[in-house]
Amino acid sequence: MSKLDESLLTGLPPFSLLERSQIREILDQALPKRYDEGAEIFHEGHDAERFHLLLDGYIRVVKTTEGGEQIIALHISPGQLFGIAPALNRDTYPATAIAASESLALSWPVRLWGEFTTKYPGFATESYSTLGQRLGEMQTRITELATQAVEQRVAAALLRMVTQSGRKVDEGIEIAFPVTRRNISEMTGTTLHTVSRLLSAWEKDGIVHSTRKHIVVTAPHRLVLLSGAQG
Amino acid sequence: MSKLDESLLTGLPPFSLLERSQIREILDQALPKRYDEGAEIFHEGHDAERFHLLLDGYIRVVKTTEGGEQIIALHISPGQLFGIAPALNRDTYPATAIAASESLALSWPVRLWGEFTTKYPGFATESYSTLGQRLGEMQTRITELATQAVEQRVAAALLRMVTQSGRKVDEGIEIAFPVTRRNISEMTGTTLHTVSRLLSAWEKDGIVHSTRKHIVVTAPHRLVLLSGAQG
DNA sequence: GGACCACTTTGTCCTTCAGCAAACTTGCGG
DNA sequence: CCGCAAGTTTGCTGAAGGACAAAGTGGTCC
User: 2.40.50.140, 2.60.120.10, 2.60.40.10, 3.40.50.300: which CATH number matches B6-134?
Assistant: First the structure.
């Protein structure tokens, strides 16, 4: 593994305001690792031995029910910490992390968590803000699941992915990682069949254009209408 | 308001391990307040000026959708901190808190949050553990909503309330605060009608006994079966 | 180039549960 | 003690969407 460059961390929220030497030190203790699409990074229930920072790619955080069904809890984008069980005094991971696309992540042993939070003021603050945001998102998903119809939930899920990872292409905005119908159904609590039907309908209406594992949203504003209070 | 007694806080997780003089100091800065059933303690979106500790009673934390529907996010029991937006660097409350029964709570201005967390080691740790648990519960609710049928969700909601606040009576275990059918429907994402039908059926089966705003679970084990993978 | 595999599409049926409506019960305030 | 409000029960109907089935379509590996 080649020597890591400091520019990797410079400007990332958790490490902003740090001096070059500090970043060097943090980096020297990091273990970089590449993950293929579909590769597991850590598993629900296992001992939380390391915490992670995603540098490139996208991560799906997944929970499995006793019935064997999977629920996608959230997606991680580059620059975000994940698997930060130590922040909440947990000693096992509460969910499984899987690379949604080919990804690169750094990780540190949990014992460094305490060191980082005390040594670098911004680090703790930033981490807990992240947690706060995630809590808010989960709130939103709960109210969505509790009050909205399937069509609205699927529209909202697409918009969330677009917002988090959308990149401009000439047709519209493309979700930057592979997504299957099944994936979407696991984000919205429905079946892949229903998702397929919805996407087909939207395709016909010119709202989205989707190929095998890729989705381009061509009319985001119409999707917003579908996701909102009334269509 | 009469002088507060130190025994109020002694032994409560957030303040365990503290010396008498420290507890005295904390208590002297606290504002105690009594709330009638249904009274609002703070409102979603308002400036988070204080954080709270529930001493007696039960609090419902509620989120309102644009459509005006309410979703009950969680219940707070005595001894728990709530409205701890500052822990996540939020400056507004993410939800509304309402007394589910007559309640007594202490509160402190948010500026003391930093002081408490730095001065009293156990305080921060304990607070973040609480947050971790809540995050876990929300996860569970999301998977429930996404994968389980209404009957299972309602059974699970009753069990959750029983676990959190159940007190033994001769018929079985009673939920310690008033709960209406509508409340349950707001916890489970269904309608009060459906909840009413379920409770009636369970009453006939001898699983619960419910009066107007009170529920006694007479056969918890059967409820567990209903909430589980298969009924 | 062919075979297999993963993903998708589409059709049909059937259950669950939300929506609507209306009567009933309980408790409280005057 | 009466009237009203809040909470509950119950019936009926219809639509949403899950379950099952089966065929279509890329993509990839040999």
Answer: 2.60.120.10
